[in-house]
Give the backbone structure.
Amino acid sequence: MWSYYYYYYYYYYYYYYYYYYYFYNYYYYYYYYYYYYYYYYYYYFYYYCYYYYYFYYYYYHYYNYY
């Protein structure tokens, strides 16, 4: 009888920690990729504004020459 409860709690905590680390790693990689794509799009947004600024700059000077 004691061995029954012993293995019962043993497997109970085994699966408990198994799923605990499983979901922990799941959310860890989830937020990792979230911030990865966040800075990825921020990077491209920065260069978008950068080239937009130079496009506007040269466009403005081009039409001021004529």
